[in-house]
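Reminder to self: tokens first, then the designed residues, so the page reads top to bottom the way the pipeline ran.
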């Protein structure tokens, strides 16, 4: 058969990625143990041995989230799908949700509420500042009919941490369910789902968990499950409808109903990533992120970088910094990538071209990376 010549595929060969150090806003460096797990022999997703793997993933996900929530699982898609899973299940057409925006990801939450047919009441804070609980309380008082309070725990666009405990308690006090983005916070700083009374929480595999991108651990409280089970309307997304997925991830001992084919190998990687968190211990992991952040900070400040966020609200795993005066940030970032095989993140939105976002997430949070990054910067600047 004569194939069309216009599709020029003859020159393509296998892809061998450059071995870069990943110190941007994610993905982070992947530990060799996790890459090795990814390439293990694929087995069927309903194989009894794989069901065990899923059960263990669920258990370890409960551990990283510090929760006993039954509805805890890993969505077979990236953090954005975890976000969508929370919104499509908890926001029905006509519902009102209070959405806090202090960066890029809060803006996406608003978009999610509106696409679910809900109304978003926006509480805005300046980029680089945490969500102001006083403004949130005012909004909750002004809108007693609101059902949801949504906010981002760790804003990756600015490197700021908001007080998730206080905000979730406010949600509870005013009869709202909380939806919390912990994509960048989980396994880097404390996320205490049960202690803080969080209701619907999502994260991502490729930030402080240092797993391959493309998975999203989520957890739903009993209150959230009650809302999902008592919805007046069907969840608009078939794939993300927790009523259906719930029966797939199952309760230990119950039979699993086929929903979709789990990304088997990606889940091997997740299993290994979670196992490494459990082996290290959450306390020690948080401490490690903090320690390397302090070392990086010292070096950066010596070089004339300045932090965007006040010390109290800074994320150790995402260092948002202004460059020293007079430097061409895009050009230097290019040099780091090309000459030093080092990726750091540029600014987003209002901070594009103004700040860098230097990640110390998961396996990237280690002495070798801090020294490598500072060494490369000293050469380039
Ligand atoms: C990275 C990120 C997301 C999106 O996750 P993806 O895996 O890229 O879909 C959502 N929220 C925050 C705060 C993030 O940092």
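Designed residues (381 positions):
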């Amino acid at each position: 058969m004569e194939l069309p010549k216009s599709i020029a595929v003859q020159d393509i060969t296998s892809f061998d990625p450059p071995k870069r150090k990943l110190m941007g806003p994610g993905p982070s460096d992947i530990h060799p143990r996790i890459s090795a797990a990814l390439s293990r022999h694929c087995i069927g997703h309903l194989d009894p041995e794989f069901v065990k793997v899923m059960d263990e993933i669920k258990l370890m996900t409960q551990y990283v989230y510090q929760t006993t929530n039954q509805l805890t699982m890993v969505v077979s898609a990236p953090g954005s799908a975890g976000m969508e899973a929370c919104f499509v299940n908890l926001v029905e057409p006509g519902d009102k949700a209070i959405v806090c925006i202090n960066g890029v990801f809060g803006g996406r939450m608003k978009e999610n509420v509106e696409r679910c047919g809900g109304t978003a009441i926006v509480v805005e804070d300046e980029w680089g500042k945490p969500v102001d609980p006083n403004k949130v309380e005012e909004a909750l008082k002004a809108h007693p009919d609101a059902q949801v309070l949504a906010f981002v725990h760790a804003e990756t666009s600015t490197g700021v941490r908001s007080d998730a405990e206080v905000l979730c308690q406010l949600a509870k006090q005013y009869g709202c369910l909380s939806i919390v983005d912990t994509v960048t916070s989980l396994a880097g700083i404390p996320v205490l789902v049960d202690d803080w009374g969080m209701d619907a929480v999502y994260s991502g595999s490729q930030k402080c968990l240092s797993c391959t991108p493309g998975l999203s651990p989520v957890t739903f409280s009993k209150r959230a499950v009650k809302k999902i089970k008592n919805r007046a309307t069907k969840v608009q997304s078939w794939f993300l409808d927790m009523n259906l997925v719930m029966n797939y991830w199952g309760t230990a001992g119950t039979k699993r109903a086929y929903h979709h084919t789990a990304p088997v190998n990606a889940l091997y990687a997740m299993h290994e990533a979670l196992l490494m968190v459990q082996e290290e211990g959450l306390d020690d992991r948080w401490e490690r992120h903090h320690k390397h952040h302090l070392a990086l900070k010292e070096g950066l400040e010596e070089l004339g970088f300045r932090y965007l966020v006040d010390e109290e609200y800074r994320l150790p795993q995402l260092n948002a910094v202004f460059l020293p005066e007079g430097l061409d940030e895009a050009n230097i970032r290019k040099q780091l990538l090309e000459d030093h095989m080092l990726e750091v993140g540029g600014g987003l939105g209002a901070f594009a071209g103004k700040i860098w976002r230097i990640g110390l997430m998961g396996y990237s949070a280690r002495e070798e990376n801090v020294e490598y990054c500072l060494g490369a910067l000293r050469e380039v600047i």
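The first strand starts at residue 21 and ends at 23.
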